[in-house]
Structure to design on (496 residues):
């Protein structure tokens, strides 16, 4: 509320509001009474009215906006709503993937989780038992570790996608979620789990025997991912049991290759490029995973078998 | 001042606002039909560029469409709309690196006593006054249009301009004085 002028005070600052009718009734009445007796304020009122008239004349004689203006408005609104909708659908997709991912954990067979833990515990026990001897033979420790952790991961992966071994397979087939996405999620889960366990084991061994974690990790990381992807591909095409057998065979082959690596040039090439963490090994692994993911939906559906 | 003026908005205005908030496109068109002159006349005080004023008006309606659900009748619909138009105008003018109404004017020069010019302003022809008005700084044209053309209260004008009520009062007085100065300059040029 503006301060109301006393009758003997001028009311200049109230006059614009008096003219546009926005003074409250009491103030307007007092202003009217003051104006009756104050000539100076009457002149002020006349001046404000002149200003008001000029403002109205000058501002209302301008051009009108284009009659098509609302079309431009709707175009802008549509464009913005489209952008928001696509943003939302990306978020929904991410949420959906997260949900599918977390739902895979209970659906993967418990023995896969347990077997990997046992393998890693076994590794630690072996290292601690042969503490003194192991210290002088770090290469053998790394080789044994690569053998065991890699086969654990490969065996796990072999069983992640097979109707006969999967309690949740029926559920998957009755949901709209793509088998490919389910498979990728499980692959990431099982390999990631084995990777984490093996990394912890490597750290423990590195602390116990000396050396850096990477000294041990690079021996098994590439082979683990490569063999896991081979295992996945074979399990999708020929079944889990064939896959495990092939994985075991490859592992034994790897052990033999490793022991001949120093003497035979071709075997040395294989050893250097595929059986360690190299770009070649990782690239082949990626190709195999892509093939398996592409091939997966061609498998016979549950209803056909 | 009549704070109660917008305490109870017209029923159909309430309905229009509610329908816009609910996503009714017809309602935004109705609002536009009702307020297009108000908003456009106001925007033309802030920029002389007709095309730019149209662009700002478009953005104002887009902003109204997006924020109608947050409108709570703390001000009248008209005050709310002009406030949005002003903000859009300032954003656009800044983007185009055009001068935004200069706020650093000497607002302290408040007329407390009637001035001699009051005796003559009323005697000047309306056309001539209107011509002088068009030459006023945007800052002054804006406040005069809000008070005398949009017929808003000091409080509503202060809300839109985001300044205290006292600043609104002093700015109107300064605007009138600037108008007077323009008329004097024209008089001298004619002689």
């Amino acid at each position: 509320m503006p301060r109301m002028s006393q009758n003997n005070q001028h009311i200049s600052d109230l006059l614009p509001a008096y003219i546009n009718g926005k003074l409250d009734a009491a103030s307007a009445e007092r202003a009217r009474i003051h104006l009756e007796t104050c000539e100076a304020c009457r002149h002020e009122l006349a001046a404000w009215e002149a200003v008001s008239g000029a403002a109205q004349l000058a501002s209302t004689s301008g051009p009108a906006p284009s009659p098509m203006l609302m079309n431009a408005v709707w175009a802008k609104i549509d464009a913005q709503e489209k952008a928001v909708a696509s943003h939302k659908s990306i978020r929904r997709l991410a949420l959906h993937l997260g949900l599918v991912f977390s739902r895979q954990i209970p659906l993967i067979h418990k023995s896969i989780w347990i077997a990997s833990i046992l393998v890693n515990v076994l590794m630690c026990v072996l290292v601690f038992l042969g503490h003194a001897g192991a210290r002088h033979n770090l290469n053998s420790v790394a080789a044994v570790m690569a053998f065991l952790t890699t086969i654990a991961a490969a065996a796990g992966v072999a069983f992640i996608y097979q109707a006969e071994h999967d309690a949740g397979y029926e559920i998957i087939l009755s949901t709209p979620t793509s088998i490919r996405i389910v498979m990728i999620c499980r692959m990431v889960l099982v390999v990631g789990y084995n990777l984490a366990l093996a990394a912890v084991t490597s750290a423990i061994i590195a602390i116990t025997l000396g050396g850096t974690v990477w000294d041990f990790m690079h021996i098994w990381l590439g082979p683990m991912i490569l063999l896991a992807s081979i295992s996945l591909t074979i399990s999708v095409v020929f079944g889990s049991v064939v896959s495990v057998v092939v994985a075991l065979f490859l592992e034994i082959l790897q052990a033999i290759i490793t022991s001949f690596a120093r003497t035979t040039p071709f075997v040395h090439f294989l050893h250097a490029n595929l059986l360690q963490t190299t770009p070649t090994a990782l690239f082949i692994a990626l190709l195999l995973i892509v093939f398996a993911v592409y091939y997966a939906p061609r498998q016979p559906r549950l209803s056909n078998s | 001042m009549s704070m109660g003026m917008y305490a109870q908005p017209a029923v159909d205005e309430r309905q229009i606002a509610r329908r816009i908030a609910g996503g009714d496109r017809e309602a935004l068109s109705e609002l536009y039909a009702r307020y297009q002159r108000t908003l456009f006349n106001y925007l033309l005080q802030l920029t002389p560029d007709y095309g730019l004023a149209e662009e700002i008006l478009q953005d104002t309606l887009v902003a109204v469409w997006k924020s109608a659900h947050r409108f709570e009748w703390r001000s009248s619909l008209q005050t709310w709309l002009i406030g949005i138009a002003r903000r859009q105008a300032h954003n656009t003018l800044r983007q185009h690196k055009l001068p935004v109404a200069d706020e650093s004017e000497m607002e302290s020069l408040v007329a407390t006593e009637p001035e001699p010019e009051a005796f003559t302003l009323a005697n000047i022809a309306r056309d001539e006054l209107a011509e002088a008005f068009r030459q006023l700084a945007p800052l002054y044209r804006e406040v005069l249009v809000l008070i005398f053309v949009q017929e808003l209260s000091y409080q509503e004008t202060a809300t839109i301009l985001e300044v205290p009520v006292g600043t609104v009062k002093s700015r109107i007085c300064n605007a009138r004085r600037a108008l007077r100065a323009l008329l004097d300059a024209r008089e001298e040029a004619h002689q």
In short: Residues 1-7, 106-114 of chain B have pLDDT under 50 and may be disordered. Chain B touches chain A through 62 residues (CB under 8 Å). Chain B has two domains: 3-95, 118-190. Residues 100 and 160 of chain B are 15 Å apart (CA to CA).
